[in-house]
Design a protein that fits this description.
Layout lengths: L31 H9 L9 E10 L6 E12 L2 E10 L7 E5 L8 E6 L4 E5 L15 H5 L1 H4 L1 E11 L2 E10 L6 E9 L5 E8 L4 E13 L2 E11 L4 E11 L18
Antiparallel strand pairs: 1-2, 1-13, 2-3, 3-4, 4-5, 5-6, 7-8, 8-9, 9-10, 10-11, 11-12, 12-13
């Protein structure tokens, strides 16, 4: 889901990234750059304009699951995506809002976070993007696919991941200030959704693993409906469930501005 929590929320986006390939047939001559571009060209919701109701479930090694409900909205204009996330429940996060504005070329994407307890909107930039998104296992950088987009790519032999034929591409982020030394992506050959990503630190130790479990096609677009980000160091997991998608109700560009975040 590109930049939903990466994204897709990403990751996201958000997690988990989706694409618009109608046939799902890979081109034999595709380079790793082209494969990754297909997997990250859309935001993590899997559609250009619309909204979705999402559950975020946080699960620690010993604690009970903590569920958060949110609304994610997407708008694409002039080839650039905007993503707006509003937390609806529970009360401790209700009213919090996050805005991601895609920028052209190499310009960093613009991020803004509104926290009702502080009654202000702040911009997230630089190393702040490596922080956890609202206590989840996704970082802000994961939500924009920053470290995947600004990377050198290496193709590895195709492999079956979870019984699914996948392209295997290793991305080595070029930004020396970020925490990842390499990201190993398994991208489905049938629809280019990211089936699995493994995130390693600069010492080549495994940090996090993203997994895709379920997805469906809505209005011709692939949408990840269940995905997971797991952090090895503290054995903490974030599950994302997309429960409902609405691509018919128009979304307003006026809602996708930093000033609008505090207005609910």
């Amino acid at each position: 889901m590109r930049r939903f929590f990466a994204a897709a929320l990403a990751a996201a986006a958000l997690a988990a990234a989706a694409l618009t390939l109608g046939t799902g047939v890979a081109l034999a001559a595709e380079s790793p750059e082209q494969i990754v571009a297909r997997a990250t060209e859309l935001n993590g919701l899997g559609f250009d304009n619309g909204q979705a109701r999402v559950r975020m479930v946080l699960q620690g090694a010993d604690g009970a699951p903590k569920e958060r409900t949110l609304q994610a909205r997407s708008l694409k204009e002039n080839g650039l995506s905007r993503t707006l996330i509003r937390f609806l429940a529970p009360s401790e996060v209700q009213g919090s809002a996050f805005l991601l504005l895609e920028r052209a070329g190499a310009e960093p994407d613009d991020m803004h976070l509104y926290l009702p307890a502080l009654k202000r909107t702040r911009r997230i930039a630089g190393n702040q993007k490596d922080g956890a998104f609202m206590g989840s296992d996704f970082s802000y950088a994961d939500m924009e696919n920053r470290d995947v987009k600004a990377a050198a790519y290496e193709a590895k032999p195709d492999a079956d991941i979870d019984g699914v034929p996948c392209f295997i591409v290793v991305a080595r982020p070029q930004n020396t200030e970020q925490p990842y030394g390499r990201i190993e992506m398994a991208i489905r050959r049938d629809n280019y959704l990211i089936q699995q990503s493994k995130f390693y630190d600069k010492g080549d130790q495994l940090l996090k693993v993203f997994k895709l479990y379920t997805f469906k096609q809505i209005d011709g677009r692939w949408v990840a409906t269940k995905s997971q980000m797991w952090t090895k160091t503290d054995n903490h997991t974030t599950f994302l469930y997309v429960d409902d998608v609405d691509t018919k109700t128009p979304v307003s560009p006026a809602d996708f501005t930093p000033d609008a975040l505090s207005k609910g």
